[in-house]
Amino acid sequence: MVTYLNALAWTVTGTQAYANKAITFMDSWASTIKAHNNTNSPLQSGWVASTWARAAELIRYSNAGWSAASITKFEGMLRNVYLPLVKDGAPNYMGNWDLVMAEAAIFIGVFLDDQTVYDAGMTKFLNRVPAYIYLESDGNLPKTAPGDTTTNTISLFGASHGSVIPRPLGSFGI
Questions:
Q1: Which residues form the signal peptide (predicted)?
Q2: Is 103 helix (H, G, I), strand (E, B) or coil?
């Protein structure tokens, strides 16, 4: 999150120190991390990857000074460390994991400029959102959303973030 906040601060203020800090974090992680390996790693990868990709997108398409070699290394991190953990989602986790992982796949696809990754993430997202959000037309006995308020809030963040990214890419199917 701190990388994304620095990228946002750079975008808003133009202060190079913010860009430099974001680049330092992205370069450090891209050259260090090889895998995630705990039981929550798919969920945590979803949270982190979507934020990484958004920060990287802001830095990459500006005059922040991020080198082509560093961008390539960062792309490799997203494709090889994070994408394998999020691309298939987690349909048995009711929505929380699935929405967060779909959001991450969408943002990774955008950053990698990979239409196949983007489309797969968007398909998962479009299939999961209706199953997670209750509408009156669903009937009298809605299924209670899983987890606690925090879990449900995070799921809704995944739904809202995933729904806004298609507009710049021209995908208006939502």
A1: none
A2: helix
